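Reply to dn_fold:

You asked what the input looked like. This is it:
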Amino acid sequence: MRTPSTVLALVVAVLALLLGGAGPASAHASLSGSDPADGVVLKTAPRQVTLTFTESVSFSDDSLRVLSPDNERANPRPAQHADGKDNTARVELSDTLPQGTYTVAWRVVSADGHPISGAFVFSVGKPSGTAAVVATGSPEDTAAGRLYGFFRYVAYSGLALLVGAAAFVLVCWPTSAAVRRVRRLPAVGWVTLAVSTLALFLLRGPYETGGPVTSAFDLAQVGRTATGRPGAALIVRLVLLAAAAVFLRRSVVRLERNEGGTPPGDLGAGVRLFGAVLALALAFTWAAAEHAAAGIQVPLAVPVAVLHLVAMGVWLGGLITLLILLGRRGPGSRDVPASAIGRFSTLAFGSVAVLVGTGTYQSWRQVGSWNALFTTSFGRTLVVKVAAVVLVLCAAYFSRRWTARLVHEAPPVAETSTVPEPARVRAVATVGAPLSPAPTGPRGAAGAPDGGEPGADTGPSVAEADGHRRGLRRTVAVEAVLGVAVLAITTLLTGTQPSRAADGISAAAAQEPQAKVVTIPFDMGTANHRGTVQITLAPGRVGENTVEAVVFTADGGLATVPELRLTLTQNDLGIGPLDAELKNQKGYWATYDLRLPMAGEWTLNLTVRTTDIDQVTVRDSVKIT
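and this is what came back:
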């Protein structure tokens, strides 16, 4: 921000570390296995259903439901962790289960605090139709989920305003004048954060379970929220806000005791230290219950996330405070001392440096590779955020230029006075203000310093100083607007599955064969009635599959036949034959909805007809996983 090369270096730093190689999945758990498996057909009814996830999960009484073909509940008791493992969920089933297809619907909360959901089926005896209906949309696409996302953004905004406004007063302009001008801003930030935190606590229950908004006031659900990690973090945040209210009140009283203002440094290092600890503790209530708390390098990720949030608050909240202070027109717009603006410029530069450094680490941790930047929702959103940050840095560069002119060219102004109130005389009231008539004394009758010539050059004109302030006000306004946009994008990222998690799921799926290919020869005993049929089953696993069959002549050329029929049989369990119902696609035969209910060795029975009277049936086998 001090030079264009500095801006470029910070931007390059953000992008460069994104080249880190992909590691273990991070945040947002996913289902890694189930017993019974999806689509399986069992001879006898199971006694329980067990789900295994990639990370630890938590759940409520209705997190795991097993529904009969008639859409009746088949698990009389709620889910529990299996064998004490926090990445599992298990429910006991009823003693008697009729034959047919059962639906398992699940909705749990991953370690980063976000709900995930899904469903699968298994059959007892033989497959059947089912009346069970389960939600298929995003687990967060509910009325409660949308409200929860809104208040999450409001909470971030409240934190920024509270921390930034308080830091501006305590560090940059610790005077009674500052208190009078900005005392409402920390109060607004405190109220915004307190109200949004309470709303998040009440909405946490329906957000996790997918229930209606009205269930937010269910006392049993509120009790469950209070015992979970996200709910406990919200309670701690409310307690810290109560402490912050007492701290702000005492700091204001201390500053107001001296009407002339308190010089920087006289407020006391202990006060500022306590305020910093409060800000860090508030930020910890986010870091301990969101993305930083799950995945790789958690002991490092949590403090990095805390620093990132506090730096965001100091920078963005301070910008808004400065913008409001500079927003007044006329003589009142010169009330803010240039020295205070200069101190905030230094503080903001340090905050942005912390933001870039911690943001770079978080990006590497949650994205992991260049490819993920453009192939995952999280990566694409992060690219937009980086572009917005680049614009912020450009605006900040111009803000620092205007600040430098204001600080270096402004005439010295007495920010404080130790003269008792009854005897106080204001010789110079504001930065850049015209000299007021002063009593006869050392300055001389005409106001020239120590008897100097009236009209002597004493610094930049009022017009020049006001011009610097107007320029600073414009660039700070642009910087603040872009900062709010970055905050909105950041809030969106907190609810998006990190790229490492998505890549981890994809990598696990990629380890399985994506298709099973079987080549079956046929020979009818004559020259033009022999060849091979290549059958491709994708993905070749339990559940729905695509089947494509291509007929080749004996010399390897493509052949057309009037009929091709494929059936599959599971001899060990007596399942089948299942007709694939291949359709002629003018060059090959295919079906796109063959459901295989059981893993194991399946026999392929292939009937090839080459003329109206010539046909042959051949067999082979394929292993379904």
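Residues 330 and 531 are 93 Å apart (CA to CA).
Hope that clears it up.
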